[in-house]
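Priority: medium. Attachment 1 of 2:
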């Protein structure tokens, strides 16, 4: 598999902000923290053009409660996601 690294694109931050708004709306009752992580979060370096987002929930919240709202928000699960400790990795079912 060929890996494509693109020059830094300022639009990556706007893409993240759009996803953050959707995720925050979908999970609002769960009080999520939503962070832009990975190489696209670093300004002025090349990266694979994939926006990585880390969603954290309070320890008292079950991760299972996040799945249905994310699916309703337009995200879809990946089967056999890695690392295996994740309960699921999500991708938008629509294009950015």
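Attachment 2 of 2:
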């Amino acid at each position: 598999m060929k890996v494509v690294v693109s020059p830094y694109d300022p639009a990556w931050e706007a893409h993240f902000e759009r996803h953050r708004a959707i995720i925050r709306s979908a999970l609002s009752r769960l009080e999520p923290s939503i962070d832009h992580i990975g190489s696209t979060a670093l300004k002025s370096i090349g990266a694979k053009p994939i926006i990585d987002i880390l969603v954290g929930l309070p320890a008292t919240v079950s991760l299972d409660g996040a799945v249905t709202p994310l699916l309703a928000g337009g995200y879809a699960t990946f089967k056999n996601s890695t690392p295996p400790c994740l309960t699921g990795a999500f991708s938008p079912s629509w294009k950015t």
